[in-house]
Amino acid sequence: xxxxxxxxxxxxxxxxxxxxxxxxxxxxxxxxxxxxxxxxxxxxxxxxxxxxxxxxxxxxxxxxxxxxxxxxxxxxxxxxxxxxxxxxxxxxxxxxxxxxxxxxxxxxxxxxxxxxxxxxxxxxxxxxxxxxxxxxxxxxxxxxxxxxxxxxxxxxxxxxxxxxxxxxxxxxxxxxxxxxxxxxxxxxxxxxxxxxxxxxxxxxxxxxxxxxxxxxxxxxxxxxxxxxxxxxxxxxxxxxxxxx
Length: 244
Fold this sequence. Notes:
Helices cover 32% and strands 20% of the residues. By secondary structure, it is of the alpha/beta class. The chain has a four-stranded antiparallel β-sheet with strand order 7-1-8-9. It has a three-stranded parallel β-sheet with strand order 4-3-5, sandwiched between helices. The protein is globular, with a radius of gyration of 21 Å.
């Protein structure tokens, strides 16, 4: 036996679970007749001292290496997640004032683009970038800054649009959710909180699943392989595909 293998075996022997985790491990994960039953069970497993988030994780049957098979879109949730987001808006004229009134963290035109070119630390606290259509060409000079930060506005994301104030309100309320599969062909989304009703979480999940199905690439035969619902500090439960 190598020294490394011996260390791993010793480490496994010394793992100690807290009382809360031991209780979670005892929960039976079977005999669910609907997605509501699964959501209720996940919520029962939320025993932390804060309002835990409820997430869904969906494994897709796409090839993430093929650009034509990636899922990238936005969905308007019936019940917002209520996470505060800092929004930056690229616009000009009266649209800048409208964006600021609607609650944009930063809003500006060419002068803001120049600031980002010389000091990209401006983006440190930004969660979402929006732009009006007429500003898209001007963003080319900072595309290499916005892109790696995941902030480049994109039509598929719904972040290039004319009605900026409405978009800011939806994002700020947590109603507008970006969906994008990762390199492992998995989509992970927050669908609610422990304090939500199971029915509210179910409606959010339906909206997400319907949007994913609507964006199914033509050459993909089976879009979803498996799915799980989990909480921040609790358990994850497999969701039969017939419930999605």
